[in-house]
Task: structure prediction
Amino acid sequence: FYGLIAGDAGHTWGAFYVNMVYFQGLALGGVMTTVIMQIVRATWGAPVRRLAEANVAYLPVAFCFFLVSYFGREYLFYWGRHPMPGREFWMSPGFVYVRFSVLFFVLYFLMARFVGLSLRGDVGLARERTADKSLWSLPIHRFLVRGWKGAEREVIPLQRKMSCSGPVVAFCYVVVTSLFAFEMIMGQNPNWTSNLFGAFIFVSQIYIAWACLALSSMFFSKRNARLGEIITSQQFWDLGKLNLGFCMLWGYMFWSQFLTQWYGNLPEETQWLILRTREFPWKGLAWVVFPMCFIIPFVSLISRDVKKNRVTYAIVCFVLMTGIIVTGK
Result:
């Protein structure tokens, strides 16, 4: 509020929007990690899966922050100040925010439903097997297990429902995130286009989500002795392999965009890239971000010992997560 009143409103809204996009993406990517685990039947991920599903709690906050950004539209978006030629209605601020409010609501609902199905089985089973029912009598517990018919009749059907809804959630996530990337991130610059940008964004979100899940697992396994007994170096090794895989995928997406812009030599694409790699104040930052996002994680996570060691793996996670937020995505 101080920045809006007494400072530079443009920089204040810019900082707000960068953080909104980053943490919204982190929460979406976190839920997607548990969707991925369900689709591929990743049994190794059972000890850390609940930590990934906890990201769903941030989605209502992310939705509110997205709505708040409407009041800074004139500072954030070209189409917030000027009509977009040929797309005057489609990119009008009111219609853009109504459209993405509906899309985000649907996506968040599907994700919350998926996590609810996952929690229903565990909460219902725990209520059946525990002697002290008061441990599982909170309003959220009663909501999750309303109409519970017993573990024998519920657990297997719940797994089937999750296996069916998982690909649907993944599809909606890809579509909504890509549209958001094209229209509300890339759309901040009226003269720049990239057909791969949507994929680059949702891959980046899942990339940092694996790193955040690893850091969360380290933190909570240290604070809870029983959790620490089941979250072992094996989980960190597997998370590290996934981080390495998405590191290579992130690098591939980055290189694919760069190579296309380089050999195409199209002014609307190359001028955006040249400005951020050859001109100050972006030049130095650009050459620092790429090693943080790709070179350091790639070289480090090739080693099994780095992935299994909590200290070294945590350092790599902090580096790559910092690199992604510095890119503004």
Remarks:
- The mean pLDDT is 87.
- Residues 93-129 form the longest helix (37 residues).
- Residues 78 and 104 are 22 Å apart (CA to CA).
- The chain has 15 helices and no strands.
